[in-house]
């Protein structure tokens, strides 16, 4: 796995490091199963190992190589140089560590911030691999497809220097939309779009269910209405919406249609029937 260039302490220590790294990756993968976008509060640490820094390449004290990369939202257009399933990452402090990760194919965690402070949220990709870098443009190429680069069709390059595609800086949000359209929609893209859509919709609805007003972000989804507009719904109302029990017409009127012969108890009345023919404000 490793090159012999750096002195190893003991095999035992290396095993420990591998275990920490793999457990951290399992931990974040489990988190992302449960969260559309993972809140930073869930990510502070794992078994006393810190998982990420504020931004950039992060190496916890317990490991000799980086564990994660964090990209924050700082561009005015909220874009990131992700093309297909790969992201360009500018050289930054910690660069030598990333080059080592490329050479030894060490799995890393990639945190992409999709919601701003306070309480930022992240889309997580893990395991990801550094598949190359370009010293001239001073950028790394990181593959987010969660596949080990060994499965590539072409034989591994003898040098890790890559020809990177030229990425033009878009000049307007319109142009970004055009560029985005031409991108291959991969799982990576879908996950990103989903998280961003949810974030934008929840923001428009001020983190509340449009039907019942529930204001717990962890319980809120962005649903898509017939006209493709997004609407914030709590988990129950989202399921009811998907099941056709809850319908919202163009004017925002709520229609509840319970299954036939359904005897509604107090709880069901409070959760569903109470909102029948109320009007939600569409944003
Ligand atoms: Zn609700």
Radius of gyration: 23 Å
Mean pLDDT: 82
**Beta strands, count:** 14
Unreliable segments of 5+ consecutive residues: 75-79, 152-160
Largest sheet report: 8 strands, mixed
Strand content: 15-25%
> What's the helical proportion of residues?
25-40%
Number of domains: 2
Structural class: alpha+beta
- Taken from the alpha-carbon principal axes, the silhouette is elongated
N-C termini distance: 53 Å
Helix-strand pattern: HEEEEEEEHEEEHHEEHEEH
Bound molecules: zinc ion
Helix count equals 6
Outline the structure in words.
The protein folds into 2 domains: 162 residues, no CATH class; 71 residues, no CATH class. Strands 1, 4, 5, 6, 7, 8, 9 and 10 form an 8-stranded mixed beta sheet that branches. A two-stranded antiparallel sheet has the order 2-3. With 283 residues, it is of the alpha+beta class. The radius of gyration is 23 Å and the shape is elongated. It starts with 10 loop residues before the first helix and ends in a 12-residue tail after the last helix. It binds zinc ion.
